[in-house]
Amino acid sequence: MRAIVMSLVVAISLGVFALPFDAAADCGDRTDMSSTPDGDAVAASGVSLVSSLNDGAQQRFIVQIGTALPDGTQLFVSANGEPAGTMIIAGGIGTLDLNNDSALPAGTDPVCAIGHVWVTDANGTMLLSGF
After folding, report:
1. Which of 19, 82, 11, 25 is nearest to 59 (CA)?
2. pLDDT of the residue at 102
3. How many CB atoms lie within 10 A of CB 72?
4. Contact by Cβ (8 Å): 32, 47
5. Angle 76-97-99 (CA atoms, 0-180°, nearest 5)?
6. How far apart are alpha carbons 96 and 119 in whole angstroms?
7. Residue 88: CB partners within 8 Å, gap ≥ 6?
8. Which of 35, 36, 65 is nearest to 49 (CA)?
9. Which candidate, 69, 68, 96, 102, places its Cα nearest to that of 84?
10. pTM higher than 0.70, yes or no?
């Protein structure tokens, strides 16, 4: 009897592990952004992060940069060719933090599909870029 129960437990466990898993629905990724020559001139470096949980019910897109630009400088973030938002430099750091608690901007929903991200200054000069 014990052997039959153990066989059933093993069979059910193997069946559960064999179920399909939709990995495209959820994601988590960090991308180091590359500085352009204009970005190098202002010591720009940065990362972009995406995460999605529960089949996209919780989505987050973050871009964080460090730079020698003065406090109060406004920078613009684009994702997939669409404006995603702005950040203000304070203490050499700027952060754009978006989530789907409210509507995500075009180009960022779903966050798992974000490809090209870049940061520009007010003149449209690209400082950082990442894929």
Report:
1. 25
2. 87
3. 8
4. yes
5. 120
6. 10
7. 72, 73, 74, 75, 94
8. 65
9. 96
10. yes
How far apart are the C-alpha atoms of 115 and 130, rounded to whole Å? 8
Q: Where are the alpha helices (DSSP H) in 35-94?
A: 37-41
Residue type, 87: M
Q: How many CB atoms lie within 10 A of CB 94?
A: 23
Rounded-to-10 torsion of CA 27, 30, 35, 41: 130
Listed as ranges, residues in the chain with pLDDT below 70 are 1-25
Measure the CA–CA gap between 113 and 56, rounded to whole angstroms: 11
Q: What is the pLDDT of residue 19?
A: 36
Local structure of residue 113 (DSSP, 8 states): G
